[in-house]
Amino acid sequence: MDKIKKVIQNELDSLTREDKENILDELRDEIDEYDKGIVALLNKRTLNAVLIGRVKRALNLPTYSPEREKDISEKINSYLEEPLTRPALQRIYERIIDEARALQKEEIVKGKLLKLRPDKWK
């Protein structure tokens, strides 16, 4: 893949259409693999968020914790690398956190506990 990325940076205009299409296919395949990993990590993160919501409920704590969200924001910004921008990363994480908070609230408000599979807790 490094070779392909180097070609894209330096030699893309000199390639045939077929070569460019092959590179496009390979890059898309790689993104598909990344997406699979991202979804797996989001599932794990969401599981922890749901469990945190249950602990918060047991402690009579609010679902929303601005201090914690500020801490998360600072941490994720420290992991940032180009080409992803800080505003883009912030928007992505705002969405992730909003969805986790919504699941926590759903359990609290509706009293409907999500079905969690302990075999997926690793």
Describe this structure in words.
The protein has 122 residues and is mainly α. The protein has one domain (2-120): Up-down Bundle (Chorismate Mutase Domain, subunit A), CATH 1.20.59. It is 73% helix and 0% strand. It is built from four helices and no strands. The protein starts with a helix and ends in a 12-residue tail after the last helix.
Catalogue the unreliable spans. none
How far do the termini sit from each other? Answer: 30 Å
CATH topology: Chorismate Mutase Domain, subunit A
Named CATH architecture = Up-down Bundle
Write down the domain tally. 1
What's the order of the H and E elements? HHHH
List keywords for this structure.
4 helices; 0% strand; 122 residues; Chorismate Mutase Domain, subunit A; mainly alpha; elongated
Record the SSE blueprint.
Elements: H1 2-10, H2 17-58, H3 66-78, H4 86-110
Helix pairs in contact: 2-4, 3-4
Q: Can you summarize this structure?
A:
The protein is 73% helix and 0% strand. The protein is mainly alpha-helical and 122 residues long.
